[in-house]
Amino acid sequence: MRTTVQATTPLEDQSAPLVTAMKAITNLTLASERLAGDNDALPGPGPETVNSIVRSFAVLNALNANNGSTVAQIASMTDLPRATAFRILETLRTLGYVERGNQNGAFFLTANVLALSKGFAGQGWVEEHAKPLISSLARDVIWPVSLTIPRHAALVMRLSSDFESPMIETRFNTGTLLPLLATASGYAYLAFSQPGTREQLIASALNEATDKLKGTPVQVLEFRSNIPTIQAKGYAYYSGYSHNKGLKRTAAIAVPVRRNDEVVGCLSMRFFATALNKKALEEKFVPIFKAAAASLEAKMN
């Protein structure tokens, strides 16, 4: 029976500063629009669109293209009424995302705007290089493949072919959080991390992770006993996924993806444990994944 596992924590919460800012903008701008009667300006593309957020992003984009613009210039660039443009700019100023110059009243973006990209920073390689690689791997091996990236005391499934592969026991949505001490990707990530980083991550998995992601002392001992083999062979193997009953017949292999000696993710493949033995894995599939990781690393570095 195939099941779909919803993401434990959606990736969208990486943009929490942006969400907070836009909610505040929405609340303040909607209230002022009801008084000013300019709800028809800059309509959104559909019924689910919040027009105030559309307008706010239009203002931010205008300032990004022409930093140091006045209210009149912003209104002209966005086709917004000056009153609406002014209220959005003042809201952004209150939130610390823009500041107003002393000379002609022009508005400038502040460094706080850069914080809105922290959840994305350094991950351009995922869309540019990893996504086409995952598609290619999925066609080559048929079994479900995925890219996981680190997130605090866990890994998050960033890309996956789960919904394209017919050979699968349980499907995972992208954004699903995975435990470090009970997955092949977790094993690979920990084993190839620097020793100090590894110990910090193990401590976090034991003490800070949520229940389904939390590790146990027994799992730590099991992982430590496997470190020499993982490092010597260049890949991790895991079976017996106790954290998810839908994976009781599943095993997986994973290889690290490194950038400047730092592990930034793992490429993995899940399969029925009885379908492939270690010899078949090491002769056919492990070399494919090692080559894919090396190709990805070369493009990033």
Care to describe what's here?
With 301 residues, the chain is α+β, with helices and mostly antiparallel strands. It folds into two domains: 11-115, Orthogonal Bundle (Arc Repressor Mutant, subunit A), CATH 1.10.10; 122-300, GAF domain (Beta-Lactamase, 2-Layer Sandwich), CATH 3.30.450. It is built from ten helices and ten strands. It has helices spanning 16-36, 51-65, 71-78, 82-95, 112-115, 124-141, 184-192, 195-207, 217-233, 278-300; strands at residues 3-5, 98-100, 107-109, 145-151, 154-160, 170-172, 177-179, 236-239, 250-259, 262-272. The chain has a six-stranded antiparallel beta sheet, sandwiched between helices. β9 (250-259) and β10 form a beta hairpin. α3 packs across α4 and α6 (124-141) runs antiparallel to α10. The longest helix is centred in the last third of the chain and has 23 residues, at 278-300. It is elongated. It starts with a strand and ends with a helix.
Quick overview of this protein structure:
With 301 residues, this protein is of the alpha+beta class. It has helices spanning 16-36, 51-65, 71-78, 82-95, 112-115, 124-141, 184-192, 195-207, 217-233, 278-300, and strands at 3-5, 98-100, 107-109, 145-151, 154-160, 170-172, 177-179, 236-239, 250-259, 262-272. It has two domains: 11-115, Arc Repressor Mutant, subunit A (Orthogonal Bundle), CATH 1.10.10.10; 122-300, Beta-Lactamase, CATH 3.30.450.
